[in-house]
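Running this now, will post back.
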Amino acid sequence: MIKFHLFILSITYCFSCASASANETLNFGSNENLVEQVIAGDVLTHIYELIGVKVKIQELPPKRANIENINLKTDGEVARIYTYGVNNPSLIRVEPPYYKLVSAVFALKSSSIKINSKADLEKYKIAVIAGVAHSKDATEGLANVTPARN
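Update: finished.
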């Protein structure tokens, strides 16, 4: 619990250095229809509330959220994976991150599959949800990956 409070204090300090005043509302884009974006938006809203800054979050299709952000129509985005910053060098990544998303591999309990690293996936056929960036990143370079529609 102490670590969590120290984390919130450090985040609060970082955001208190931002140019937003108590009378200003920051407008963020959020990728629509993704529960992790809703949760990240709730956390981000609470963090800004701690320093008296209002936040408005607009759910958008991911590509549109990206365009709105790059064209300065929003003040930022609620949450993106690390490589988003690499692929969009004109944007600023806020460090430290306030949340973390971890991809996981699932197989039937009755199978003998053991996955301890990305290399262990090489011998299997893998399905990922098409358009999900963290799944694409996690399987990059693997030969037997099939994107599936959600």
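Residues 1-13 have pLDDT under 50 and may be disordered. More later if anyone needs it.
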